[in-house]
Amino acid sequence: MRIALTGTPGTGKTTIAELVPYRVIDINSLVKGGMNVGTDPDRGCLEADMDALNAHLSGLDSDEPLILDGHFSHHFADWSIVLRLSPTTLRPRLESRGYKESKIMENLEAEALDVILVEAVEQCSRVDEIDTTGKSAADVAKIVTELIQGLRRLPPGQVDWFTDFFNP
Ligand code: ADP
Ligand code: MN
Questions:
Q1: What does residue 23 show for φ and ψ, rounded to 5 degrees?
Q2: Is residue 110 part of a domain?
Q3: What is residue 45's DSSP assignment?
Q4: CB-CB contact of 22 with 147 (8 Å)
Q5: How many whole angstroms from 16 Cα to the centroid of ligand 2?
Q6: H helices present in 42-148, as ranges
Q7: Nearest protein CA to atom 24 of ligand 1, as residue
Q8: 3-state DSSP call for residue 158?
Q9: Which residue from 5, 11, 15, 99 has its CB within 8 A of the most atoms of ligand 1, so it is best to mutate?
Q10: 165 within a domain of the structure (yes/no)
């Protein structure tokens, strides 16, 4: 069973993936490791080879939960867990990564407009959404684990950063 752990860059996917008791596949390292179709000239970053990734991930399928870590991992799973974070808290995380202002704004706007959540809802038959704002990584990992254990559900629609971000 593949489960995508998705969300805007900086929302905590890799941190949380390391804390849950399941096997994790890092989609970004597969892309860097060769599953790409070259550098996107407009964005200056590697463009993922979606077919190669799909084929590779199909080969790993089993009954055990397999966590896919990545901001487009929802394209490869039927169930997505979307990590959300208030843009106000997300900004300093992206700044400390050294992103340039235009890339920071692009990501903050995507978070404010629910871009990844909407994509996940379009792609997946089940989507859960976790508001991680103010929660420790251990707390978020516990929620993810409880979702996968079937102990709770967190349907989308709990967060609204729009007012926060566009009308502070
Ligand atoms: P992603 O993989 O989604 O891009 P990361 O897991 O790399 O995000 O996390 C980005 C930064 O935020 C890291 O410095 C990480 O330590 C920090 N972080 C992640 N989750 C939390 C949390 N729940 N509380 C505080 N800091 C966090
Ligand atoms: Mn990551």
A1: -70, 140
A2: yes
A3: S
A4: no
A5: 9
A6: 50-58, 87-96, 101-112, 115-123, 137-148
A7: 136
A8: coil
A9: 15
A10: no
Does the global pTM surpass 0.90? yes
Tokens 């102990």 sit on residue: 151
Task: Give yes or no for residue 70 CB within 6 A of ligand 1.
Answer: no
pLDDT tier at 166 (50, 70, 90 boundaries)? Answer: confident
- The domain in which residue 115 lies consists of 2-156
Atom of ligand 1 nearest to the CA of 15: 6
Rounded to 5°, the CA angle 76-88-111 comes to 25
CB of 7 sitting under 6 A from ligand 1: yes
Question: For residue 25, what is the domain's CATH number?
Answer: 3.40.50.300
114-148 residue pLDDT tens: 999 999 999 999 999 999 999 999 999 999 999 99
Instruction: Report if residue 51 sits inside a domain.
Output: yes
C-alpha closest to that of 120 among 1, 35, 2, 5: 5
Q: Is the CB of 54 under 6 A from ligand 1?
A: no
* pLDDT (tens digit per residue) in 6-27: 999 999 999 999 999 999 999 9
Residue nearest to atom 10 of ligand 1 (CA): 10
* Total domains, the chain: 1
User: What is the CA(36)–ligand 1 centre distance, in A?
Assistant: 25
Percent of the chain whose pLDDT exceeds 70: 99
